[in-house]
C-alpha cells in the first residue's frame, strides 16, 4: 500500500468535517457524538495524516450518510435513516462512500468531477457559450473619447455595460471550458445562433433587452422593477407565500450605494432545451458583479456551489437574490451559506 493513500483518506475525512459546511464549524467532539458516541481521540486518529489509522468500513458508511445531506444538521448533528434520504442524497452518499472506500483500500485520490466543483463547467466540449452584456447607453458615452468609434483611441469594450463582470466571467468560463467557444456580445449584436447556445446574461432589464426577453419567458416569481427617470432605485419584486414585496438596494441620503442586491438565475434555455440560460443581475453594476463572483471567487466558490447542490439539486432551475454590501466603494462577494445574505430563493422548498 502506498503511504500516500492512508494519508489521503485522513486528509479527506478532516476536510469533510472542516470544509463541507465551513459556516458551521464542526468539531471532532460533535462528529464523535454523531457517529455513535465515539471518543474524540478516535476521530483525531482517523484525521491524523502523519500517523493515519483506517476507520472500519461501517464508520465510513456513517461518514457518507452524514455528509451526503445538510439535513444532517437539523435538530442537532446526527445520522438520518437511509430511507429518509432523497434520491439525490442517496446518489451523493453512494459517490462519497465509493470515494472513501477507494482511499481506504490504498488507492490514490480520484480526480474530482467537474460538475460537483463548479456550476460554470459544462460537459459538452463542442458547445458554444455566449455572454451577453447591455450596450452602454449613448448618454453615458458622450464624455468618453474611448467609446467614440471616430476616436483614434476607440476601445469597443467601453461601449459595454458591466465590463468588470464581463472580464471576471469570461476568464473563468474560458478556464473551465477550454475546448468550448466562449464569446461575448452586446444584446444588440446577438444572432439567431447565439440565442440557442448556452446564454449568460449580465445586467438587468434597464439596458439588457436579452435579459428582459428571458425573464419574461421564465416561470419565475421574480420581476425586476427598472430604475425610472425620477430617481427611484427600483428593485426586485418577488412573490412569496402569496404576498408581493419589493427588495431594494440601500443608498444613503447623498445617493451613495451602501448595499446592492444581486439576482442569480439558472434554468433551461427557452430557446434550446438542451442548453441553459443564466442571469447575473443587480440593480447597479456592483450587484451584477456580485452575482458573478458568488460562483467565481475562489474564497466562496466551493461553499456557494455546495449550497446550491444541496438546496436545489443537480441541474434544476433555481433563483437566489442576495445582499451585496458595498464597503469602500467595492461590492463584496455574497456568501450564500449565510441565511441573512439570502433575501429570496426559488423554488421555495428544496426539491
Describe the structure concisely for a colleague.
It holds the Pfam family HTH_31. 33% of the residues lie in helices and 20% in strands. It contains 12 helices and 12 strands.
Task: Characterize the structure shown.
There is one protein chain. The protein is of the alpha+beta class and 351 residues long. The chain folds into 2 domains: 4-111, Orthogonal Bundle (434 Repressor (Amino-terminal Domain)); 117-346, Chitobiase, domain 2, CATH 3.30.379.10. The chain is built from 12 helices and 12 strands. Strands 1, 2, 3, 7, 8, 9, 10, 11 and 12 form a 9-stranded mixed β-sheet that branches. α2 (28-34) crosses α3 (40-47), α4 (57-67) packs antiparallel against α5 (87-104) and α8 (163-176) runs parallel beside α11 (285-293). The longest helix is centred in the first third of the chain and has 18 residues, at 87-104. It is elongated and about 70 Å long. The relative contact order is 0.10. Residues 111-116 have low confidence and may be disordered. Pfam families: HTH_31.
Straight-line distance between termini: 42 Å
Q: Please give the domain count.
A: 2
CATH architecture of the largest domain, by name, is: 2-Layer Sandwich
Q: Kindly identify the CATH topology of the largest domain.
A: Chitobiase, domain 2
Task: State the name of the first-level CATH class of the largest domain.
Answer: Alpha Beta
The fraction of residues assigned to DSSP E strands is 15-25%
Structural class from helices and strands?
A: alpha+beta
Order of helices and strands: HHHHHHEHHEHEHEEEEEEHHEEE
By DSSP, the count of extended strands is 12
Rg from alpha-carbon coordinates: 23 Å
Give the overall form: elongated
Stretches where pLDDT is under 50 for at least 5 consecutive residues are 111-116
Tell me about the biggest sheet? 9 strands, mixed
* Individual helix count: 12
Give the rounded overall mean pLDDT. Answer: 86
**Helix share, percent:** 25-40%
Q: Give the CATH H-level superfamily of the largest domain.
A: Chitobiase/beta-hexosaminidase domain 2-like
InterPro entries: Cro/C1-type_HTH, Lambda_DNA-bd_dom_sf
Pfam families: HTH_31
GO molecular function: DNA binding
Protein name: Transcriptional regulator, contains XRE-family HTH domain
Amino acid at each position: 500500500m502506498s503511504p500516500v493513500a492512508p494519508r489521503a483518506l485522513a486528509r479527506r475525512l478532516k476536510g469533510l468535517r472542516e470544509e463541507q459546511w465551513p459556516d458551521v464549524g464542526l468539531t471532532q467532539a460533535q462528529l464523535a457524538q454523531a457517529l455513535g458516541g465515539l471518543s474524540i481521540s478516535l476521530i483525531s486518529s482517523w484525521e491524523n495524516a502523519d500517523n493515519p489509522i483506517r476507520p472500519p468500513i461501517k464508520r465510513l458508511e456513517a461518514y457518507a450518510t452524514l455528509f451526503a445531506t445538510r439535513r444532517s444538521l437539523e435538530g442537532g448533528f446526527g445520522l438520518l435513516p437511509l430511507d429518509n434520504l432523497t434520491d439525490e442524497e442517496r446518489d451523493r452518499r453512494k459517490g462519497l462512500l465509493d470515494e472513501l472506500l477507494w482511499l481506504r483500500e490504498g488507492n490514490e485520490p480520484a480526480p474530482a468531477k467537474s460538475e460537483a466543483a463548479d456550476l460554470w463547467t459544462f460537459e459538452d466540449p463542442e458547445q458554444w457559450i455566449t455572454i451577453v452584456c447591455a450596450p452602454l447607453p449613448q448618454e453615458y458615452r458622450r464624455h468618453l473619447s474611448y467609446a467614440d468609434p471616430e476616436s483614434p483611441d476607440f476601445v469597443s469594450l467601453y461601449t459595454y455595460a458591466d465590463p468588470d463582470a464581463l472580464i471576471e466571467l469570461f476568464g473563468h468560463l474560458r478556464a473551465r471550458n477550454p475546448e468550448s467557444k466562449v464569446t461575448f456580445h452586446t444584446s444588440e449584436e446577438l444572432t439567431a445562433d447565439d440565442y440557442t447556445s448556452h446564454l449568460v446574461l449580465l445586467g438587468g432589464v434597464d439596458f439588457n433587452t436579452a435579459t428582459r426577453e428571458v425573464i419574461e419567458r421564465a416561470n419565475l416569481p421574480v420581476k425586476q422593477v427598472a430604475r425610472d427617470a425620477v430617481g427611484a432605485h427600483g428593485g426586485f419584486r418577488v412573490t412569496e407565500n402569496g404576498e408581493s414585496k419589493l427588495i431594494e438596494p440601500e443608498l444613503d441620503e447623498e445617493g451613495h450605494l451602501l448595499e446592492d442586491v444581486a439576482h442569480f438565475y439558472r434554468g433551461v434555455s427557452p430557446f434550446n432545451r438542451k442548453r441553459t440560460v443564466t442571469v447575473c443581475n443587480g440593480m447597479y453594476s456592483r450587484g451584477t458583479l456580485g452575482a458573478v463572483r458568488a460562483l467565481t471567487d475562489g474564497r466562496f466558490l466551493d461553499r456557494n456551489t455546495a449550497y446550491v447542490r444541496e438546496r436545489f439539486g443537480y441541474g434544476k432551475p433555481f433563483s437566489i437574490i442576495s445582499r451585496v454590501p458595498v464597503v469602500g466603494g467595492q461590492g463584496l462577494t455574497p456568501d450564500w451559506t449565510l441565511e441573512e445574505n439570502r433575501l429570496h430563493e426559488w423554488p421555495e422548498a428544496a426539491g
